[in-house]
Amino acid sequence: MSTTTSGRSGRKIVLWRHGQTSWNLERRFQGSTDIELTETGLAQARRSARLLASLKPDAIVASDLKRAAATAAELAAVTGLAVTHTDALRETYAGEWQGLTHEEIVEKYGEQYAAWKRGEPVRRGGGELETEVADRAAPVVLDHSDRLPVDGTLVVVSHGGTIRTTIGRLLGLEARSWESLGGLSNCCWSVLGEGARGWRLLEHNAGTLPEPVLGDDD
Predict the structure, then answer these.
(1) Which residues pair with 60 in a beta bridge?
(2) Does the pLDDT of residue 91 top 60, yes or no?
């Protein structure tokens, strides 16, 4: 999706999900487990890095988990930028859910899973609340965006759940509606742009560079 117009300026935040892992293929809940990229995931990161480099980012900040760090390294290689790593951008810690397949989670924790899908605050597997993930991740993203030059671009390399909760927080959405943003595919990204009334969602789950669209609401 795109809601920006040509001629608009301001800071941008690109939130980029890591490439494919073996647990992604097996539909296992990774959470904060430190899983590496597959060869396919590394190739995805290299392709996406070449695209994102054309946006001329000014800074890169990434989760310190291997799958995100390796993805960020591909962008660093083509831009020459250093990567700032932080545990604040790690994926949601999900306790007993971690390592389980989707089917195993539904079978063993069906009521908990259903409550989470309804938008209720749930400590999945005894882990973090989504609001707690946003509490640790969003301030780091804002801190790094505040250091950007005028019209600068920050690339945040993180994980699907953390990116969704961060977007929800920065857009000022109620926590129960964050799920409506939908997930990100491996090595896809979302773009937030600075507007007169705060951050706006310009692109979501994109795998190609954004095209300006003229809309009646701009």
Answers:
(1) 83, 155
(2) yes
CB atoms within 10 A of CB 111: 8
| C-alpha span between 19 and 33 (Å, rounded) | 15
Q: Is 111 a catalytic residue?
A: no
Taking only Cα atoms into account, the Rg of the chain, rounded to an integer number of angstroms, comes to 17
pTM for the predicted model, two decimal places: 0.91
- The catalytic residue among 91, 128, 194, 203 is 91
Tell me what pLDDT residue 15 has.
98
Burial of 78 (0-12, 13-18, 19+ CB in 10 A): middle
The answer to whether 91 is a known catalytic residue is yes
Q: Please, how many CA atoms are within 13 Å of residue 84, restricted to the half-sphere of its CB?
A: 14
Three-class SS of 86-107: EHHHCCCCCHHHCCCEHHHHHH
Q: What whole-number distance in Å separates Cα of residue 214 and Cα of residue 218?
A: 7
Helices 39-53/66-79 angle, 10° precision: 40
End-to-end Cα separation, the chain, in angstroms: 14
Please tell me what DSSP assigns to residue 176.
Answer: G
pLDDT for position 194: 93
Within 10 angstroms of residue 169's Cβ, the number of other Cβ atoms is 22
